[in-house]
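Box 3.1 A note on notation
Throughout this textbook, protein chains are presented in two layers. The first layer is the amino acid sequence; the second is a token string describing backbone geometry. Keep the layers aligned when reading.
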Amino acid sequence: MSPHKVATLSPTKSHALAETLAETRSPLKRPTLPPMSAPEGWNIEPSTFLSQDDWDDCNSEGHVVARCYGLEGGRSVMEDHNGFTTIFESGDKLYLWARLNNEVYEMKARNLRDLIVAMSEPGGEGIRMQPLAPLDYVPC
């Protein structure tokens, strides 16, 4: 006989132990994030955007501008109250489209929530952008 004994649980005792452990464990709780609210002067509700039609199909203005800067088509995710500036998503990045001069800037934020937090900081100091150069040839 071996000097080492191995303890075994009968199926009934094993089941009772599992139930006891399940009762004492706290359920995994994921932190819930508060609903996003737009920074002052901005709107994040796409159904109310003034420029809704600019992203309807591949030939609409938003998609054409995106292609002019070498980006895939996108979707609008935030717009200023006047409709002069649109933040859109293309691929996994965010871009600002300054509609008055048709300039596009890459927003240095991981996602819309991070961008909103940065925009909400006093003076918007948390916002980082890089201007994009338009292509010489616009692919169709």
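The mean pLDDT is 78. The first strand starts at residue 42 and ends at 43.
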